[in-house]
Amino acid sequence: MDDDETPPELVEVTALQEETRTEEVEEPGVSRVPITLVTGYLGAGKTTLLNYILTEKHGKKIAVIMNEFGDSTDIEKSLTVNQDGQEVTEWLDVGNGCICCSVKDSGVQAIESLMDRRGSFDYILLETTGLADPGNIAPLFWVDDGLGSSIYLDGIVTLVDAKNILRLLDEPATEEITHAGHEDHAGPALTMAHLQVSHADVIVLNKVDLVTPTELDNVRQRIASINGAAKIHVTDHSRTPQIEGVVLDLHAYDQLSKLDFDEKGHAHIDPKISTLAIIYPRISSDQIARVDEWLRSVLWESILPSIPEEENEIPNFEIHRLKGILALKDGTFKVIQAVRDVFEIRDSENRERKEDNNDAPDHCKIVIIGRDLGKSAGAWERNFRSFMEKVT
Ligand SMILES: Nc1nc2c(ncn2[C@@H]2O[C@H](COP(=O)(O)OP(=O)(O)OP(=O)(O)O)[C@@H](O)[C@H]2O)c(=O)[nH]1
């Protein structure tokens, strides 16, 4: 996003602030526009996916923002106008009701200028550069006060090149990638590919024509071991089986229709990033504040609370993505969403009372994706349980 790669400031949203946000009354007739981030390593097939979406019938007027860094496709070139050394954002109709722009400076500026054209589109797709860390970008749209009132983050779609991904994941990273406050992390360096996979809500496992079935199986297992919560779609030329509900309209941040992650024994475990789930019985509404406190400790401090240092089995973890469902004793549900240290606990919008919805879980579940989480969910579950049950 920013050319100087300065990480944008993260905004901390507590459950309390969120309550104010969800109660915001929207202007009548003005609904928020969804934005999908399309990430993936250089050459993975992001532009191919955008072209596929733009040419398919979906009845949406999509505004596409392409970040032209390191790219040379004709459309992107033709869009960047240079005036006195300043990059100017230009909007171009690309047919099918869609408009497109190229961004050199700041994606946020492009979106603000896009919002001036509100009404001429109903969906935004942002293609990030192959080298962008989605964990820095997502919170901008998700919780930013200005943008947040007109846009909501629908989901993060990560393109993965089936032919090259294992090499990228195993490559020593050129520089240590960590988030604020964790520069001294001692574990093996992460690659950008790790970050793009760990933050994904959907993974488009592309270029399947270039690998054998065995290679595909290996890649699939490795990806699932890193991010066990993302849906994986295997594609050739980024042609997903359908668009709506697969790459668009995921509602990955405002609804949690299913959290169907199960810890499976993966044959190809990634040494750096993994996914785990904590299960806990229904809680009372008084205990939500306690969950909030636990989240603040693990997300903001990277510390499992209330454990003496010498007993800490997971001393050096880093959470990239966390999502959860809190099942309350009164039959209602709360949803937890976090990207890095930005999190919220909100009312579940699409989950009715248990008696009306047989799919609804009768327990709380928190899924965590991150670095150095330890060998299993056991230590996490024990910590969560003892923290919840501790009398304060
Ligand atoms: N064989 C094969 N080639 C593909 C597939 N998908 C995309 N390509 C080709 O791979 C190249 C890169 O695809 P892009 O869509 O430009 O990739 P990108 O992620 O946008 O690349 P950057 O913008 O450089 O980060 C293009 O030449 C595509 O035609 C696929 O499934 N199989």
TrEMBL record:
<dbReference type="InterPro" id="IPR036627">
    <property type="entry name" value="CobW-likC_sf"/>
</dbReference>
<feature type="domain" description="CobW/HypB/UreG nucleotide-binding">
    <location>
        <begin position="34"/>
        <end position="232"/>
    </location>
</feature>
<keyword id="KW-0378">Hydrolase</keyword>
<keyword id="KW-0547">Nucleotide-binding</keyword>
<dbReference type="GO" id="GO:0005737">
    <property type="term" value="C:cytoplasm"/>
</dbReference>
<keyword id="KW-0342">GTP-binding</keyword>
<dbReference type="InterPro" id="IPR027417">
    <property type="entry name" value="P-loop_NTPase"/>
</dbReference>
<comment type="similarity">
    <text>Belongs to the SIMIBI class G3E GTPase family. ZNG1 subfamily.</text>
</comment>
<dbReference type="Pfam" id="PF02492">
    <property type="entry name" value="cobW"/>
</dbReference>
<keyword id="KW-0862">Zinc</keyword>
<dbReference type="InterPro" id="IPR011629">
    <property type="entry name" value="CobW-like_C"/>
</dbReference>
<keyword id="KW-0143">Chaperone</keyword>
<feature type="domain" description="CobW C-terminal">
    <location>
        <begin position="318"/>
        <end position="376"/>
    </location>
</feature>
<dbReference type="Pfam" id="PF07683">
    <property type="entry name" value="CobW_C"/>
</dbReference>
<protein>
    <submittedName>
        <fullName>CobW domain protein</fullName>
    </submittedName>
</protein>
<dbReference type="InterPro" id="IPR003495">
    <property type="entry name" value="CobW/HypB/UreG_nucleotide-bd"/>
</dbReference>
<dbReference type="GO" id="GO:0005525">
    <property type="term" value="F:GTP binding"/>
</dbReference>
<dbReference type="InterPro" id="IPR051316">
    <property type="entry name" value="Zinc-reg_GTPase_activator"/>
</dbReference>
<dbReference type="GO" id="GO:0016787">
    <property type="term" value="F:hydrolase activity"/>
</dbReference>
